[in-house]
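Run log, item B.
One chain of 162 residues. Sequence copied directly from the ordering sheet:
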Amino acid sequence: MAAGNVYYAKQNHCYVLKFVGDIRYTQGTALEQFLKWLFRQDDFDDMLIDLSETTSIDSTNLGLLAKIANHMYRQRYKQATLVSLNDDINQTLEGVGFFQVFEVCKDPARCRRAEQVLPATAPSKDDLTRTVRDAHQTLSDLNEQNRLMFRNVLDALNQSEH
């Protein structure tokens, strides 16, 4: 399956991220770098994440989405909006607790157009491992079910670091 892309746009005071296709951990480093930059910006008060064209998304990228939820709550005192039309993805989102930390919307009319693609990166093995570990830690911190679900992944990633 071909790798997907993550697009972004800013409309008024809202950033839009659109995930298209098969979203894998290999795209996580580029997304993490973008989020680090974005979280330093003071020119927005809302975020919309559009998963309406996402065919699959892995746990690393779910962890990065959890970072968005945490940032929006801590810095903006609100929930980011997540749009998803795929029942399988919605089941995953609900399973990891996203219905509690995002405003989940199943209406494509709420999606704003995202046009600029995040640049592809060739991360080092250490950067990729750190991104995967940090994303899974954030996902695990959302609730006890996630902590149990991703404990083995985190243990393995922490072991590989030593």
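Observations after the first pass:
- The longest strand covers residues 46-57.
- Helices lie at 28-39, 59-76, 87-95, 98-101, 125-140, 144-161.
Flagged for discussion on Thursday.
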